[in-house]
Structures are given as C-alpha cells and as structure tokens.
C-alpha cells in the first residue's frame, strides 16, 4: 500500500486511491505474508520459526495456490522481496529448483529479484554509514570514529556514534513526515507522487474494524508495520535505529 500495490491509502486513513505505478498493471501479483504470524496471517498451531521452515511453507502455499487456480500452472513467474526477503527469496527459489531437479515440481520459476536486501549485518551497517559520510550527512571525525571499532571487529558502537537528524536514511533527499504539537502530521516539503506520512495512513486504515472485516481478517487485530519484539528476537544485535530496515 506504500509502494508497488494496486491501491494507496489516502491521508484520511479511510479511503483508497489507485496506484498508477502498480506492478499488477503488467503482471499478476501475489502478496504473501511470510513467515506465518506476519500481518493478518496466523497459525492455529505454534508458529514455527527459521528461514528453512519459512521457505518450505512458502513453497507449500504456492503448490496449493496453483492447485486452487490451475489456469496459472506453467506460466512464467518470478519471486521478489525486499529487506529480510534477501534471505527468504533465494531460499524459496532454492527449494523450487531442487524439487525441479528431482522432477517433483514443474513450477516455471524464471528469476528472482530483491530490493535493499538485508543480507549481512556488518556489511549492511557499514555500507549505510559510508553512504551517509560520502554524502556529507556525517563528518570526517565521526566517520573516523566509526572506522576504528568497525575495522577492529568491534561492531558495537558503530551505529551509535552519531544522530543523523530529521532525514530519511533510505532517501536523504526526500521529505520526511513531521508531527506538529497538536498531533497532526504533514510532509516537511512537497515532492510530487510521494508522501512520507503514508505509513500513518496505512496504520489507521488496517486497524479499522470495518476494513479488517471486509478483508476477512481476524477482527480486533492490532496491526502494525513492524513488530519490534519479533524483530529484536530475530536480530538481537540490531540497534533500535535500525528497526525499520528489518521490516
């Protein structure tokens, strides 16, 4: 709802508008909440964890989905994702390719692509800091301090040595969402087609009981873009400032 889906949530948090840049203008797109327990998904049994189980569960979903909609069997398809899907996507592809080698599946996987993948904590963190330094967001002195403990293998403190301020570290030239003293929110500046406050609109929309009922989700679900508790359990070494990168 914030990027490539067919709809965007309007600032009122109640209505939708078409996304003219949606991927489904060119292809059929399935959005899979993964692993079980993410978003509105749930399990009646204890929710398993681990990347291997996630890959197998995703494969089983595809298998059953294609049985339910056989007209899509044999069509070219691609697997995509962002952030921690840098692990989920290739591991699901590996399951499909291994089964295809054994003749156990004929899924016509053509390729994979990942955006901003979270692959390795040290390299991801260091690369982000180097980008901020090379673009003048942090000083030479701070960069020197970062390089000391990082290069010696003592990664603790590398991410805590500065405050990047009110910028979007994913796009340092983009406007950010600002909250006024009265609680209202607004973009710091205008950029056509981009609203940095859209996360708040989505949060309001998906926590609307009428929306949850219409989506056949379990009602009274406390939906959030990211679960800090879940993610800290998975990435215990990540600093709070990096939470969003693992969403």
UniProtKB/TrEMBL annotation:
Sorted UniProt keywords: Carboxypeptidase, Hydrolase, Protease
Entry similarity comment: Belongs to the peptidase S10 family.
One GO BP: proteolysis
Protein's name according to its UniProt entry: Carboxypeptidase
Record has Repressor as a keyword: no
Coiled coil location: none
Enzyme class, UniProt record, top EC level: hydrolase
GO CC field: vacuole
Molecular function, one GO term: serine-type carboxypeptidase activity
Sequence intervals crossing the membrane: none
Pfam families per UniProt: Peptidase_S10
EC assignment: 3.4.16.-
């Amino acid at each position: 709802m914030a990027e490539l889906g067919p709809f965007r949530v309007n600032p009122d948090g109640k209505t939708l508008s078409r996304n003219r840049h949606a991927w489904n203008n060119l292809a059929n797109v399935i959005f899979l909440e993964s692993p079980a327990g993410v978003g509105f998904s749930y399990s009646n049994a204890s929710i398993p964890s681990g990347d291997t189980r996630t890959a197998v569960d995703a494969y089983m979903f595809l298998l059953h989905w294609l049985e339910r909609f056989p007209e899509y069997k044999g069509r070219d398809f691609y697997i995509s994702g962002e952030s921690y899907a840098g692990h989920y996507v290739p591991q699901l592809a590996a399951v499909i390719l291994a089964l295809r080698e054994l003749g156990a599946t004929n899924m016509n996987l053509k390729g994979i692509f990942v955006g901003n993948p979270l692959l390795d904590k040290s390299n991801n963190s260091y690369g982000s800091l180097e980008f901020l330094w090379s673009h003048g967001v942090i000083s030479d002195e701070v960069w020197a301090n970062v390089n000391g403990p990082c290069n010696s293998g003592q990664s603790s403190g590398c991410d805590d040595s500065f405050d990047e301020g009110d910028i979007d570290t994913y796009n340092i030239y983009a406007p950010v969402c600002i909250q006024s003293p009265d609680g209202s929110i607004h973009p710091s500046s205008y950029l056509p087609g981009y609203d940095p406050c859209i996360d708040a609109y989505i949060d309001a929309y998906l926590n609307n009981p009428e929306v949850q009922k219409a989506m056949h989700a379990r009602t009274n679900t406390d939906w959030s873009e990211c679960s800090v508790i879940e993610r800290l359990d998975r990435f215990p070494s990540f600093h709070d400032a990096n939470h969003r990168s693992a969403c």
